[in-house]
Every structure is written in C-alpha cells, then in structure tokens.
Predict the structure.
Amino acid sequence: MKAMVIGSGAWGTALAILLHDNGHDVTLWSHNPEKAAQLRDGRENPLLKGVQLPTAMQITDDISLLREAELAVFAVPSFALRETARKAAPFLAPDALCVSVTKGIEPGTHRRMSQLVREETGHARVVALSGPSHAEEVARRLPTGCVAAAEVRVDAEAVQRAFMNGVFRVYTHDDMVGVEFSGALKNVVALCCGIGDGCGCGDNAKALLMTRALTEMSRLAEKLGGRRDTLAGLAGVGDLIVTCTSMHSRNRRAGILIGQGKSAEEAMREVGAVVEGWYACQSAKELAEELGVEMPICRAVYAILFEGAAVGDMVHALMERDPKREIDSCWV
C-alpha cells in the first residue's frame, strides 16, 4: 500500500517507520522544506535520537505527492490540523483512507480531530487511531497497543491491517466520540498529575487525580455521545496511565515545571514541543460549562494555566470540596 504520513514530528515519524516495517511504500511529509532536507540527509529525527530512518522511505515537503497515496495519515499538532487537511484536500485520491492520529479538541468549534479531517477533505472514510503510544517507544519497536475507531467497520479493520504487526497491536472500535475525547482529555489530566509531581503531592495524590479525572472524562464523553466502557479501554484508562506516569509525556513534563513554580508559558518553552493539554484544557472547560458537566479537576487546571491561580490554592480547593459518594447508585 502507498501511504503518506502528513507531519514529521516524533509521532508522525514513528508511524512512518512502523508502516515501512509492515512493507508499505511510505512517504513522510514535512511542512518545512529545511526540516525535510535535514531528515533526508541525516536519516534521523532529532526528536527520536538514535533511531535511523529507513533509506527506502521517501521524505518530502511536496504535498502534491499525496495524489499517489491509498492511506493518508494526519499526524500534525491539533492547532495545525484544519489548515493542513485543507492543504491536503486537493491532492487526496477519492478512495483514499484517512487516519487521524492527532489528539485534541479544536478551540471554539470543539470539533474532534477526525471531524476536522472530514470537513476539510470531504472524505467519509476517516479513522481515529489512538491509545497509549509514546513515539519514542513505537519508533524503537517496543510492544504497544492502540485502537482504530471508525463509523464503518471495514475502515477500522483496514487500518488495523495496515498498522498491526508483532510489536504494534491494534484493536478496532466503533465509538469515535469516546476514543477521541479520551485522547484529548487525558492530556489535561497528565498536566495536572505533572503539577502534582512538581509540587510534591506524592503517589497517593496521583492515583486520586487519575481515578477521579477518569470519572470526569467519562461524564463529558457520555454527554457528547460516547460510551462509558470506551473510557475503560486502551484509549481511555490505558492512555491515561502512560501519559500521567511517563517522562516521555510532554504534558506531564510541562506540569512538573509548573508545579515547581514556572509559569505555563515558561514550562511549554522549556519542554520545547507542543503541549496538547494546554489547548484541550480550554475546550474541555468550555464544553463542561456548556453541557452542565461537573469537571472540578479540569477546572482547577484551567485556573492555573489561564487565570494565574496558585497551585497550592487549587490543591486545597479540590481536597476541600463538599463530601461526595463515589458511585451515585450506592445506598439507593
């Protein structure tokens, strides 16, 4: 299969290597001609140090080469996805299968990433690939599991066949809403857990945050048409675990710096790569208010990132909330 991976960041590069390993004819596209030349000449992405890019893998800044692709993988940051999909649209083959691997919620419209691809390209065949999958480990061929979610079963299964191999296991799913909102919202939680790590809250606090945040994520996803059981799978709790506990996570690393006293802007500069939780937090807070969904953890992160709230004050505010039952149906 001819495939183009649109976006040459760490994740796009890792997936391009994976697809090449699976025997596909792969082209990796970068929006930056200089970066494309650097990758071609050096055969290494600076974000994946020590991982050699296959010599047979084409690297380009020419989006028109997308005309030849049967599989188009969109792997750009969430803030750039709509514009990139619009740029790609004239060159997409009518029967091309589109895959969104970007995790986020568009500010203002609150669109999921697959919706942006569909809106800008006009393609109905759009699949969301998500799950606990750090690029650094996928590129080094370490065991990983993901979920391919689509409205049409055969499209999800086509992506499953294209990506799955002995070190990358793919499950199919029909709940695109639950899968995509899980992928976006867990970045907010990872920021929060990082903040807790940075200010010394400890492991008990991290377990508390992750578990109660999963409840918040489930509430919002259900309200938007997703299913609660999706949040219990790889795209939900699986991605939550890896993003909240690993130093590969840019969101967690940024949170640690904020917890240590740096501003959100300083933290993101120091991390030196896109911190998706920054963008998702604002959209999640707006959606929660619009839909009447209680999300105190998300609201606390928003206050720290966008309102200048002190970390210590938000910790106390969360811990001192009114007493609650953990499960609504107990002692009916």
